[in-house]
């Protein structure tokens, strides 16, 4: 995108206020903020003007809209959708659109709004070959560790779906990180959490704890802090400023433990994290893959691992499907246990987990 924008901006420089040429859209404010920082670092000496827009101040922006020349906008979906609906930012000159963490943006809660948003840009696969003119249509890039199963359904009236080219890395979902699945009752979780976390904090090893909802995230954070284990919380109940501060304090190493929901599972740069604990096991395997991806990253420290507390029948069912996929040397199936009935071959009879309290094996993700 940067190389493209360098060429395009010389063609349409005059009177281009609030008309970006490149647009990167994310599902969360934290991810938009992080990408925006990196974009600014790269572009500041290239003469490319970047702008990062996140929610929380939308009304203020609408009351006093900026008027500025901008080349690349990085934004979370909700705010850019509102600001383009009100015509504060215009999208008819966008020539490269990137949806990062696309599977989250294609969730059915965003679907109708996303369709309207995409139709504001001239997306297409045909291009003029004259380098002295701006391309006639915009390039469309979807980036994610897991691609949405609903992609065709959402895009069929927006673009020619057959024109999409799929680019997949050789080792997608095949990074080997030891993963332990610990069977225990719900009432045992707090005690086991303390046993799990204390030695890691003593060794100054960073840990991310995942829960499935904001209330549990807040409770776990409070419980650990009351147990003299400094813990930061990051979830959707918090204001943007507080969330950014919490993540910055964790990333800088001021605190070793971060408790979060799926809000902290996608895209964030966490190369210093050695341990991931799923205090609550996710219902969707896509969420599990993204949570696992917070450790064992390129440039990470060694001896990373993922641990999982497994309690409910739904959680056990997801673990069994993951283990079955690995034993059959198949990719981890993308599904939500709440939606799956008997429609796939992973539902054939499976030997239950044994009487052992813990079961550990390494799986690729």
UniProtKB/TrEMBL annotation:
GO biological process: regulation of gene expression
Any coiled-coil regions, as ranges: none
Key word ATP-binding present: yes
Helicase C-terminal domain sequence ranges: 189-341
Keywords: ATP-binding, Helicase, Hydrolase, Nucleotide-binding
EC number(s) reported in the record: 3.6.4.13
Record-annotated Helicase ATP-binding domain positions: 1-165
Name recorded for this polypeptide: RNA helicase
Species this protein is from: Cardiocondyla obscurior
């Amino acid at each position: 995108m940067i190389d493209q924008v360098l060429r395009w901006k010389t063609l349409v420089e005059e009177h281009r206020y609030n008309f970006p040429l490149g647009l990167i859209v994310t599902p969360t404010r934290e991810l938009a903020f992080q990408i925006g920082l990196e974009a600014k670092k790269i572009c500041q000496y290239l003469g490319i003007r970047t702008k990062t827009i996140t929610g929380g101040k939308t009304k203020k922006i609408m009351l006093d809209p900026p008027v500025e020349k901008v080349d690349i906008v990085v934004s979370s979906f909700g705010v850019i959708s509102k600001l383009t609906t009100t015509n504060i930012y215009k999208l008819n000159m966008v020539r490269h659109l990137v949806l990062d963490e696309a599977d989250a943006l294609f969730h059915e809660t965003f679907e109708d709004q996303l369709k309207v948003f995409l139709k504001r840009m001239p997306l297409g696969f045909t291009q003029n070959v004259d380098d002295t003119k701006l391309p006639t249509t915009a390039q469309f890039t979807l980036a994610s560790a897991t691609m949405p199963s609903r992609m065709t359904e959402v895009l069929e009236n927006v673009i020619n779906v057959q024109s999409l080219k799929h680019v997949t890395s050789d080792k997608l979902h095949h990074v080997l990180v030891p993963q332990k699945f610990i069977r225990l009752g719900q009432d045992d979780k707090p005690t086991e959490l303390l046993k799990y976390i204390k030695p890691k904090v003593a060794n100054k090893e960073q840990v991310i704890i995942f829960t499935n909802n904001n209330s549990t995230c807040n409770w776990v954070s409070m419980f650990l802090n009351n147990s003299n284990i400094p813990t930061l919380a990051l979830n959707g109940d918090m204001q943007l400023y507080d969330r950014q501060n919490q993540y910055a304090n964790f990333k800088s190493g001021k605190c070793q433990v971060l408790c979060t929901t799926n809000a902290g599972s996608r895209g964030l740069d966490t190369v210093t994290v050695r341990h991931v604990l799923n205090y609550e096991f996710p219902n969707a395997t896509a969420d599990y893959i993204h949570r696992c991806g917070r450790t064992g990253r390129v440039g990470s420290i060694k001896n990373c691992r993922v641990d999982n507390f497994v309690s409910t029948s739904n959680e056990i069912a997801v673990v069994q499907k993951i283990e079955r996929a690995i034993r059959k040397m198949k990719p981890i199936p993308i599904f939500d246990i709440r939606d799956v009935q008997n429609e796939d071959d992973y539902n054939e009879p499976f030997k239950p987990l044994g009487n052992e309290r813990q079961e550990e094996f390494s799986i690729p993700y």
